[in-house]
Specification:
Length: about 700
């Protein structure tokens, strides 16, 4: 390099004046653009010198001043584009590569340039990437021991990678996350709080991608973050920003199965649970506005931690070890009893639901962990619908295991849960309760009695039979919600529960221990229009043959049984008024796709027997015939209104079934009829009643 390229004292003075001029004209960014060529020339001269001698302290001081000039200028929005479009960034990267001494005053100003030109500037982020500046930032963060250099490097990463996927990918590839995690391990939080907070923000942003999450997990970053949360939770208000940023990292990785497994394997459940238990903020000395702001922010952070703990119980690999961890499970059960901490109640219930995904766990949760009483406590006391929904979700799971039903019924699950059916603003909660009633009543006479009568099974039901409107029962509440809901799934499951109750009351082994009077009282309660009509409506819906069959079986049992008033099944069979059911797959179009008039119950039953689409199994067709046979027998009974029998005989049943028999005969000639003896015999039995 020739001597005339070396900076002279006059050059230094000129540069100082230039810097001063720009500072004075900072409100006029065009001044920066005017001086940029001189700044670039100066950097080129410095680069050439460092390539010959990288130890000239004076030259490094001048470069630091130059970088500072650019960084200060870039505070102004209009200055960022011209700086980014110049050669300044490329030269900065080349010069920093020669800063083997890691001179902090040079590093800091270089990092400030990169950070400031990328504020709200996507194009400059790409230029920083193209220039290889992320290698520069990574090297400084990895090797510098100067606190301000580390802090500024974290800030540069935050700005340069913000909403820039390509930049984030590059940073992950360079292994920068490892250096960021080292920042989070700092022993002196008070001294390095800002650096740690920014490092946590950057890490959280990087974890939004799979590569970032995988890096954090692989480097035991979850453990690092949890330990940081443990330390800051002792004064969460003092470290609110850091605590919040660290929580964001966990929130970002929580959905990854590898992260969930790491939380379990590294023993982090208890630390996380302790943080949730003991962390809080004080309202002392705050204005109302400040209280609201802090409560909102801290509430969101706590909710994120709850989400992390719940997510960690989702992994299939965690289900057994978490369930077998007595300390964790007992803590969950203790949380269920904390009426003043509904956030913990919700968390505990959701976690218990996640680990109760096998019959074995469901049974042990009831019989060994004794979880039913604490869950009932939540259901009865919770004011937050989230807590109620979580608790009923677990109870719904537990009710699936047959061994649990007796104990759950005896514990009062039905009485505790059924009032929640009135919560029309909480459809998922209603669905949980319907699921509980359906499962607890399956093949269980005692629970069936509790649902129908609202009483305990040992009471003599026939002595003081309930009349409609006397008391609110689980059955009456269920019927009401079926009637007023327009949700297909809720109506269907509710109606299937009614079918369950009918089947158990008429045919369950569990009912044999009760006196005839009590069983008759139960049957009369079920054999009413408010129960029969939704079953008939489900039977009319042709979309699901399985549901139709359940309805057919229930109606068959009901039609020949005692009733206090008119025979509700016969009423439904002779009714010509139909109410369309909500469709599970509503189609929105200018014209309805199906203009067919809804079928009456009788028309629907005959349609099943005819089986014109060939989709109705013979067993279902046979069941329908049994229903029609029983209906005709009931209509012929002494004391029954003769209008029923007259209607049924004149309704076209005979002609329809005769036609089906002819079709079976025709098929028989082709060898198909022999496969349908049940249908043929069942049709003939119906026709014999119509002779």
């Amino acid at each position: 390099m020739s001597s005339n390229t070396d900076p002279t004292p006059q050059d230094d003075a000129g540069f100082a004046n230039l810097v001063q001029d720009v500072k004075l004209s900072s409100s006029n960014p065009s001044a920066v653009e005017t001086h940029l060529p001189g700044v670039v020339d100066r950097l080129e001269t410095a680069l050439a010198k460092f390539e010959q001698d990288g130890n000239d302290q004076g030259s490094w001081d001048q470069v630091s001043n130059t970088f500072q000039f650019l960084a200060d200028s870039a505070r102004e929005e209009k200055a960022r584009t011209p700086i980014g479009e110049s050669q300044a960034v490329a030269l900065l990267v080349q010069i920093e590569a020669l800063n083997k001494q890691r001179l902090p005053h040079v590093d800091i100003q270089a990092l400030r340039v990169l950070a400031n030109i990328c504020v709200d500037h996507e194009a400059n982020r790409n230029k920083v990437l193209e220039a290889g500046a992320f290698e520069t930032i990574n090297n400084i963060l990895r090797s510098s021991t100067h606190p301000d250099a580390v802090k500024t490097a974290c800030g540069a990463l935050l700005n340069t990678t913000m909403a820039c996927e390509a930049a984030q990918t590059k940073v992950i590839e360079l292994g920068t996350i490892e250096s960021l995690l080292e920042v989070l391990k700092s022993d002196d939080i008070d001294e390095n709080e800002v650096s740690m907070t920014i490092a946590a923000r950057v890490t959280a942003n990087l974890c939004e991608s799979d590569g970032g999450s995988q890096s954090v997990i692989k480097l035991s970053g979850i453990n690092t973050v949890v330990q940081l949360l443990v330390r800051t939770s002792k004064d969460v208000e003092g470290y609110m920003d850091l605590f919040d940023a660290a929580t964001d990292i966990l929130r970002a990785v929580a959905s990854k199965e590898a992260a969930q497994i790491a939380i379990q394997k590294e023993g982090l459940f208890i630390p996380l649970m302790e943080i949730l238990e003991h962390t809080g903020i004080s309202d002392e000395g705050k204005s109302e506005e400040e209280k609201k702001e802090d409560d909102k922010k801290f509430g969101e952070t706590k909710a994120a931690l709850v989400e992390v703990v719940v997510s960690a119980t989702l992994a299939d690999e965690n289900m057994v070890p978490v369930f077998n961890n007595k300390k964790v499970m007992e803590r969950f059960l203790t949380w269920l009893k904390l009426s003043d901490r509904e956030d913990l109640q919700t968390c505990a219930a959701l976690c218990l639901g996640n680990v109760a995904r096998s019959d074995d766990h469901c049974v042990k949760l009831v019989h060994e962990y004794h979880a039913v009483e604490p869950l009932i406590h939540v259901v009865r006391k919770a004011t937050d619908l989230k807590a109620s929904h979580a608790a009923t979700g677990v109870l719904r799971n537990l009710a699936l295991a047959e061994r649990n039903r007796e104990l759950m019924g005896n514990a009062g699950v039905i009485q505790a849960c059924f009032p929640l059916l009135k919560k029309d603003n909480a459809l998922p909660l209603q669905a949980n309760v319907v699921g509980i009633l359906k499962r607890l009543s399956t093949n269980d006479g005692h629970n069936t009695i509790r649902i129908i009568s609202g009483r305990e099974p040992f009471e003599t039901l026939s002595s003081t039979p309930n009349t409609e409107g006397d008391i609110e029962t689980p059955l009456s509440t269920l019927v009401d919600v079926i009637d007023r809901s327009d949700d297909f799934a809720l109506k269907s499951e509710g109606t299937r529960t009614l079918c369950n109750l009918v089947k158990v009351t008429w045919g369950s082994e569990g009912m044999r221990g009760f006196d005839t009077g009590s069983i008759t009282a139960l049957q009369q309660t079920l054999n009413k229009a408010n129960v029969v009509l939704p079953i008939a409506a489900m039977t009319r819906n042709p979309k699901y043959v399985v549901l139709q069959n359940e309805g057919v079986i229930a109606l068959t049992l009901l039609v020949t049984s005692p009733s206090q008033d008119k025979n509700a099944v016969l009423d439904s069979l002779v009714s010509v008024e139909v109410t369309p059911q909500p469709d599970p797959e509503t189609t929105i179009s200018e014209e309805p796709l199906d203009q067919t008039k809804p079928l009456t119950l009788l028309e629907s039953l005959l349609s099943l027997i005819k089986n014109q689409d060939g989709k109705c199994p013979d067993e279902v067709r046979t069941n329908v015939c049994v229903l029609l046979r029983n209906a005709l027998d009931a209509a012929s009974r002494e004391g029954e209104d003769p209008a029923y029998l007259t209607f049924l005989k004149d309704s076209g049943i005979k002609d329809s079934l005769t036609e089906v028999l002819k079709q079976l005969d025709a098929e028989s000639e082709g060898g198909e009829g022999k496969k349908r003896p049940l249908v043929r015999n069942a049709i003939q039995e119906v026709l014999s009643r119509l002779a």
